[in-house]
Design a protein that fits this description.
Order of helices and strands: HEEHHHHHEEEEHHEEEEEEHHHE
Number of helices: 11
Radius of gyration: 29 Å
Strand order of the largest sheet: 3-4-13-12-9-10
Structural class: alpha+beta
Strand content: 15-25%
Distance between the termini: 59 Å
Helix content: 40-55%
Shape: elongated
């Protein structure tokens, strides 16, 4: 019985929408039937043991409401018809009940059945709309993110993007890699806020990076181009009475030398893994997020840091560092990295996502984007243009 009841709570198969795209999850009809029969058996057994079978059968009126909250309209109609029959049939054979009482009881059961089925139809329609909206937003977001891994002349970049599976909390984590005449340039960032408007800002920033990374010879000029893209996005958003956005970002450049360049725009600093040591790569001065440069007088500057052969640079968004355990503790990223030592880039990113899922017991609260950048011998491979 518990397995059947669990099947109602934990959906078993997909109930596709009319478009054949987005879908919602509902229980299997066999599990619905089995759970209904078992619930009826328990109620009847209790009624027989206490001598008040009709009273206990009245408890079955809750079954249609339960089905309306979890099942398809057809399944709800099946459960409602069963529950109504179990309540009406014993009353029909009771001589103490008048014809009027029986008619009222039958009308009540029919009305309850109709309301349950209508409730299930309304719920299914709304869930389809929510799922379709989330699926469209996630599909749009995935279209702007380059498939990983990416191999260039300078680095191997692997990573994981784990979107939040909630309809109302589609985030704006972004990343991009570009092999340019000035080396490989990488971007990782997080758009402030949620929803489709946040994805619009993400599209603008990634598009600006893809163009400016191949045009601008310096990293500061590249970041200025990203800043201008966010400012333009906010200007259009203001005209549409939408909220303005800022974007925390990290831009890294790697060439054939043994050092790399870094500009931190209000984002989480990267971690360097080399020879079993884990070091936070801190910029000399942390810059404000993209879209807020007008609030400060100092221009953005580039920081240099050692990036030797065989080292791995880890870039991530705050969905990883701000993940919390059920007790409220933050995920200890640097300490957890120290336990792993030097491992391959693909294994590192996937291990991190699995580890944070175990740490939070599956309670993900934000998108998670993780990039592992492994330096490759210069000229060992050809990268994308």
């Amino acid at each position: 019985m518990f397995r059947s009841l669990r099947a109602l709570v934990v959906p078993a198969h997909r109930f596709p929408d009319g478009d054949g795209g987005a879908s919602i999850r509902t229980p299997d009809t066999r599990d619905v039937v089995l759970a209904t029969v078992l619930a009826t058996t328990v109620v009847v057994a209790l009624g027989l043991l206490t001598g008040t079978a009709v009273v206990f059968l009245g408890l079955l009126v809750f079954l249609p409401a339960f089905a309306a909250a979890l099942c398809t309209p057809r399944q709800t109609a099946l459960v409602s018809a069963w529950a109504s029959g179990c309540v009406i049939v014993p009353a029909v054979f009771r001589s103490a009940d008048s014809v009027a009482d029986r008619v009222v009881l039958a009308l009540f059961a029919a009305g309850l059945c109709a309301m349950a089925v209508l409730g299930a139809r309304v719920r299914i329609r709304r869930e389809r709309e929510f799922v379709r909206l989330r699926s469209s937003a996630v599909a749009m977001q995935r279209q702007i993110l380059r498939p990983l891994p990416v191999v260039t002349d300078d680095v191997l970049v692997d990573g994981v993007y784990q979107p939040l599976q909630r309809d109302e909390l589609v985030g704006g984590d972004i990343y991009e890699v570009a092999a340019t005449p000035w080396g490989t340039r990488m971007l990782i960032g997080d758009v402030q806020g949620k929803g489709l408007s946040a994805i619009g800002a993400a599209i603008d920033v990634v598009g600006a990076f893809r163009e400016a990374a191949h045009r601008e010879p310096t990293l500061t000029a590249l970041v200025d181009a990203l800043e201008a893209a966010v400012v333009r996005h906010n200007a259009y958003a203001d005209q549409r009475d939408e909220p303005e956005r800022f974007v925390t970002a990290l831009v890294v450049a790697v060439d054939e030398g043994d050092e790399a360049q870094l500009v931190v725009c209000g984002h989480i600093p990267p971690y360097l893994l080399h020879d079993g040591a884990v070091t936070e790569v801190a910029a000399e001065e942390e810059q404000v997020p993209l879209g807020l440069a007008a609030l400060v007088d100092e221009p953005r500057t580039v920081a240099w840091f050692p990036f030797p052969d065989g080292a791995t640079l880890l870039l991530c968004t705050d969905g990883l560092t701000e993940a919390r355990s059920p007790a409220g503790a933050f995920y200890p990223l640097q300490a957890r990295l120290g336990h792993r030592g030097d491992i391959t880039a693909d294994r590192l990113t996937r291990w991190l996502v699995d580890d944070v899922r175990d740490f939070t017991r599956g309670g993900q609260e934000d998108d998670i984007a993780v990039l592992a950048v492994r330096r490759a011998p210069y000229g060992s491979s050809t990268g994308p243009s």
